[in-house]
């Protein structure tokens, strides 16, 4: 990667031919359009057609240049990446390198003064693209690289990320999945340098739908998401406990069941991560509490059975403490 192709001459020779659209009645022929100095990724086969169908020799509003100038930081980064694999379903005619009116540098194929087919481009903001073009826009399979070494490789439509692709950040974090109009949408896998990852559904750029989020310390949430937050039904597993139930704004909200590895269990209502409303708490030694909770503590009338009590009794709790028995 990082090699630059040379400019093809406007005057064709026996080994340099032009490519044009293919009428059904013409049998394609393959000929060379590159010389020994061309980079490997730009060597290709083309099709010879009738003179009436040929493209213009130079695109409009473009100035010929010897070659495009790839920014040094991008060229160095390209040398660390595998050679780009062009996946083309549309072709144009290779005319050489040009400086365009918006200060972009383009080296690739054209059709009727529009970038079309295979091409490389350095934009005025120093972003680099190599891949497929259609009607002067990035379209098809390609690779877009920013000077800060963030890059996307995948499918585009009408200049936007669309279809399957992968974004890699300069810190090693990456997202691999589906895009719709430049936003994560559909299934995707997102991984961070510290080991955190999300594997699940996205909607309009946010985690939404079913998914699994794994933290660096091993904690796992599996369930529903909305607007990048745990919301709906899901199960959160810590090393020594787990909660299964309703969530809102990434907090336990609604009905759920909390289970500890030592045998304790709570079944009831939560509000903002705290037991609130009616709930039942069971201990492994047979003790239980069935009643009201407030702000995470027993509060109100309840049925209580102690470890050594033969039967449950009605009582009243306040701020987590039993204050009286109710006869």
UniProtKB/TrEMBL annotation:
List, alphabetically, the GO terms of the cellular component aspect.
Answer: cytosol
Per its UniProt entry, which superkingdom is the organism in? Eukaryota
Give a yes or no for keyword Repeat in this entry. yes
UniProt keywords (A-Z) are: Repeat
In terms of InterPro entries, this protein maps to:
MORN (IPR003409)
What the entry lists under Pfam families is as follows: MORN
UniProt keyword Iron, yes or no: no
Question: What's the protein name?
Answer: MORN repeat protein
Gene source species = Paramecium sonneborni
């Amino acid at each position: 990667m990082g090699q630059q192709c040379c400019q093809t001459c406007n005057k064709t020779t026996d080994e340099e031919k032009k490519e044009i659209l293919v009428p059904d009645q013409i049998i394609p022929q393959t000929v060379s359009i590159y010389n020994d100095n061309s980079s490997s990724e730009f060597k290709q086969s083309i099709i010879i057609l009738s003179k009436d169908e040929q493209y213009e020799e130079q695109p409009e509003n473009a100035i010929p240049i010897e070659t495009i100038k790839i920014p040094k930081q991008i060229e160095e980064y390209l040398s660390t990446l595998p050679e780009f694999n062009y996946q083309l379903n549309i072709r144009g005619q290779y005319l050489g390198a040009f400086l365009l009116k918006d200060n972009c540098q383009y080296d690739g194929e054209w059709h009727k003064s529009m970038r079309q087919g295979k091409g490389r481009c350095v934009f005025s903001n120093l972003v680099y693209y190599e891949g497929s073009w259609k009607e002067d826009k990035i379209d098809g399979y390609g690779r877009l690289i920013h000077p800060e070494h963030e890059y996307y490789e995948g499918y585009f439509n009408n200049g936007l990320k669309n279809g399957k692709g992968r974004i890699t950040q300069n810190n090693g974090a990456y997202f691999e999945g589906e895009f719709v109009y430049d936003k994560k949408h559909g299934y995707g896998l997102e991984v961070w340098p510290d080991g955190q990852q999300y594997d699940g559904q996205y909607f309009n750029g946010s985690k939404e739908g079913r998914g699994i989020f794994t933290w660096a310390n091993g904690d796992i949430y599996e369930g529903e998401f909305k607007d990048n937050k745990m919301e709906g039904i899901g199960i959160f597993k810590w090393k020594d406990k787990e909660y299964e139930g309703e969530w809102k704004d990434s907090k336990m909200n609604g009905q759920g069941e909390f289970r500890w590895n030592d045998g304790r269990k709570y079944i009831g209502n939560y509000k903002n991560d705290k037991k609130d409303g009616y709930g039942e708490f069971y201990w492994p030694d047979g003790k239980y509490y069935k009643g009201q909770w407030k702000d995470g503590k027993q509060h109100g009338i309840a049925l209580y059975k102690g470890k050594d009590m033969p039967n449950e009794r009605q009582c009243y709790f306040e701020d987590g403490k039993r204050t009286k028995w109710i006869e």
